[in-house]
Structures are given as structure tokens and as C-alpha cells.
Amino acid sequence: MYKHKIAIVGATGAVGTVFLKMLEDRKYPSELLRIFASKRSLGKKIDYLDDHLFVEEIQEDSFFDSDFVFISATTSISESIAELAVKSGAIVIDDSSAFRLSEEVPLVIPEINSKDLTAHKGIVSIPNCSTTPLAMVLACLTQLSRPLRVITDTYQSVSGTGSAAVSELLNQSKSVAVGKEVLKDVYPHQIAFNLFPHIDDLQSNGYTKEEMKMVLETKKILHRPDLEISATCVRVPVIVSHSQSVHIEFENEVKVDDAIEKLDNFPGIKILDDLNNNIYPTPLDAAGKDDVFVGRVRADSYRSNILVLWVVTDNLRKGAALNALQISDSMIEMKLVV
Amino acid sequence: MYKHKIAIVGATGAVGTVFLKMLEDRKYPSELLRIFASKRSLGKKIDYLDDHLFVEEIQEDSFFDSDFVFISATTSISESIAELAVKSGAIVIDDSSAFRLSEEVPLVIPEINSKDLTAHKGIVSIPNCSTTPLAMVLACLTQLSRPLRVITDTYQSVSGTGSAAVSELLNQSKSVAVGKEVLKDVYPHQIAFNLFPHIDDLQSNGYTKEEMKMVLETKKILHRPDLEISATCVRVPVIVSHSQSVHIEFENEVKVDDAIEKLDNFPGIKILDDLNNNIYPTPLDAAGKDDVFVGRVRADSYRSNILVLWVVTDNLRKGAALNALQISDSMIEMKLVV
Prior knowledge:
2 copies of one chain form a homodimer. The first copy, chain A, has 338 residues and is of the alpha/beta class.
């Protein structure tokens, strides 16, 4: 059944690990896989189904037999490798911000804009892990009325930074619990029992790069350069799943019940909304699941064209690995790859 | 110097403990203090300066010699005790939501509306711990232009729930770290490495009581029934300090530099805003401090009459105990108490 050869760059990282797990769940044949990672992991043996995979070093000819090259490492690794992979005839599906805003690179969430894949020139980008759920909610609700303005404040887990940040959160939490000195390495501030409105560097307009990713990527995916979006991105002491509080101003009135119905019927979105029974999305419940979970859907108290919602998604799955895999599925289905 | 007799109800709770600490810092004479708490703490000896205080049980005549009765317990305790204290001739300064919206009860943040104290009839309420910093920022910026609409998404620490919730967070964090079963008691969901948009009960309009406290209390304090406020209140795994991302739409254009200048000069507000040097308010840094800290002040990218800011405050100090103490100071200064 499966025949495409896949190379995974960053296979031992937070997203790469989830990506491999998803391939295992599909029983994707190990013979079709090659895994690459940083020098630190070279030669490392990774259990995969009843087999093993060995971490390889990237070389000039690494990708000559690959159909897809998934990259989830650093932006500079994506920048230095993508062209090599494309020259080798592979399609690159890239998790970094390196190419997301390039005109010749489709930025795709298959539920929304798989059509954009037809214009690919070898590289396809997946959106930032906080962009994807926001764009899905907006795309869905556009069926009811055109969104004009969006405010989102995020609650982003440390796995968005990578595995080292997960260790840092857990180690710091242990240190605080037993009264030991708290060591910092990944973040400039203690993250255990703390949080900060600082993800990625500051831009000249006062917003961080992460905040501007949400703004610019969402506009591109939705083909809505006119959409006004304002984001505040906050790192919180959570291991997996990004949450966000979203306020959407529409062109016309939107009723809560209509929004809930549309959201619950949109592919990849699931409603969890019954606060009286303590039901609403939480990061812990969303972790390891595929859906974008939405709850606390309510109307603004003053204006009938504004809705408020609470959105939670596993940042490693739909926020990254799952979306990447769905892109390759779509490209195969659309016969964009032989 | 000090002569007023103070009774503290809920003296062993999260806020009560901070309140006593603040009196200790002032070297307030122990002879002028009486402390009350739940039956569980009856007779408990609390170290205070070079002396001790003993936890008493509330009785009919407990407050006959008190000038001020500070209550920080549950709403139902406030409801059952306040009248008794007023009848005894004391002034009640209440931390619960029991009386905050009553017309005959001033709801006061001294930096904003100490004038309202003159109309008191024995009870003065202090605002919810998330309301106070928001109202201070809005009162300050009103000097530049009239706020018309406010959106706030909060990141509220567990000490807002009380000491039992602090223990629950710490115990759960330890359990996760060592792989033990996580026990839940205070919250319906695990709070360690998790968060949820659920503080207090659901109202019929889809907002929680906590969210509506922020809305209704802010309007009352600012005497602005027309102000549009929308809040999403989220509990996060932080021990002390509440954070919030605030979006303010003004009547006219407001420049970032002017806002920063006004905020930094407002009593009780301090600006921390230099992201390139990792400077912005965090809950850990704000804990134990008196100020409302503001950072990430920036303009909306599309509209010159909208500002976005990040606000962090120790919920036990300015959010509760400090504000209560400032109210009694103001009443003494205004000669509203003999």
C-alpha cells in the first residue's frame, strides 16, 4: 500500500518523535524511512515497529531517493538543507518559519487550502503551531460571516520550544518542590510556576516574531491580506498543547449556536463546551489527540457580531507533525507526487 | 502612633497571612490586633513581631472593641459576619464578592476612587484580585483618552483560590515529576502542567462569575456603566500573581510613549518594558511586591486608538491585603473613622 520514501530531518526532536510515532501507528514500512538528526544523535538506534532505524548524518546525496523530506529542526537547518533536498527531486515539507512567507512556497493546512499545493515548487511549509488552530477556526466560521478583526492571547506549552525546554520545566518544578536551586538554560526566566509574554525576538513594531507569525501566516493561509489580527504570545508552564483565547469580530451578526454547529462539523475541529459539567478544552486532555478543540463559545455582551472562544490543540500533532503528514497525504491524493 | 483596633477574619488563609505580614512590616502593635479563623485553626498560636497572637472563634461580642474588621474568608462568612461587625460599631473592609455591587457599599481602590469612601455605611468592599490592576491601568490611561472597549484574557495563579489550591499545585507537580498518581481535590482538573478557562460558576450569558466580576466591578469603580469590557478568566499553574493581556480601544488616538509615561507616573503602577533585555512583568518577579507591573505596551497594527499591554500583580497584596490596608489608611486620613 505505502510506497513513498520519506526522510525525516530532526527525527529525535519533540516534533520528529511524534512524527515517527504517527508513522508507526500507520504501520508505515521501515524500509521506506530514513532518519536524520544532529551530530549528537548520530548512529543512535530508534525502535520502530519490530525493526530499528539508525540516525544518519546529512550528506550531499542523502535525499536522492526520497519522495518527501520532512524537516523539523531549526530555521537555519531548514535554510541550509531544503534546496539540497529539492535538487535531489524530493518534496520538502518544512516545519520552520524559513519559507512560510515566500511567495513561491505554499503554506498549507489541508482542511483549508490544499488547493494551494498545486503551485508548489518543491517546498511546502506548515504553519506555526499557534497559527494552525486559529486559522482553522476562522476558516470554519467564515461560512457564517466574514471575520474582520481578531484578537488572540495565547498560552503556549514548552514543547513548542523543544525537548530541552520540556526537561527544563520538569527539572525546575522538581527543584522548587524540594527547595533546591532552580537552574536556567533554555529560557531567560524560570518557567516552572511562572510564565512570560516573550516567544521569539522583538520586532520594530513592538510585537514578537511569534506574534507576527500568527498575524502574517493566518492572512496568507486564508488569502485575507485585509484581515486585522492582533496576538499576544505567552509561554506557560505546560508540557504539551497550546491554548488561546480568541475574540472575533465579524462583518455581520453570528449566533453562538450556529457557530457551535459549524465548528463541530468542520473536519479536524471538535467542540467541548459544557462548563457546568467542567467540560472545556484543557492542554492535558488535548495532548496526544488530533483535533483542534474549541469551547467557551459565547457572544460578546455588547455587540452581536463578536464571538469569544477558547481553543486548545496539541502543538506537536495538528500544530506540526500531523499537519505535515496530512500535507503529504493530500499531495499523493492530488497526484502532485508520483 | 497607631491606635486603631483591628480584627482579622480569615487570618490563617492566603490573604490573611499576607495581611498580618504587612502589619508586622509596619510594626503595628500586637495589642491592637485580634485574629479569627475557622474552627480548624482555633487556639492556634501565630508568631507576630516579638509576641504571639491566638486564633479566636467569632462570637456575638467579638467586634465590640474593633475599629476595623478585615474579612477575607468565604463569601458566606462575609455575609453572615459583616452585619454583626457593623452593629458593633466597626468598619468592615471585605475581600469577598458579597457586597461589591451593592449600591450602599463603596468598592474602592484608593488610587482611583477614595472619594467614594465618604458614602460608606459601615461596609467597604475591595475589588476582585484581577479587577484591581485592570481598573488602575484604565483609570490612569483615561488621562489620555476615554477607554470605550476593553478585552482582557487572564492568567490567574492558584493562590487566588486559597492555600489548599497552592498545596494541590505543589503536590501534583511533585507527583508528576516522580511518576506518582495525581490526586485532585480543590479543582475539577489537574492544575499541575495544565490550565483551564474556568474560575467560579457559569452565568446564563456564557461568562463565568469571575469574568463578570471583572466587568461589573470595573464599571462601578470607574463610574463608567457604559464601558464595554469582555474578560476570559483562566487558572494557570502559577503560585502567586495574576497576569493579564489587555486590549484597550480609546475614543481617540493614544501614543505608546505617552501611555508609558502616564503609567509609570501613576501611583502604584510600575513599567517594566524592555523585551530585548528580557524585561517585562512575570508572576514570579511580581510576587511579594506592591506595584501593578505593566509591560509589552504597544500599538495595534491597524488602529491608532487601540493599545495592547501586559499587566502582572501580586493577587494577595495589591489584589487583596494591600488594597484593604490602603482603604483603612485612607479612611483614617479622611477622618472617616475616629
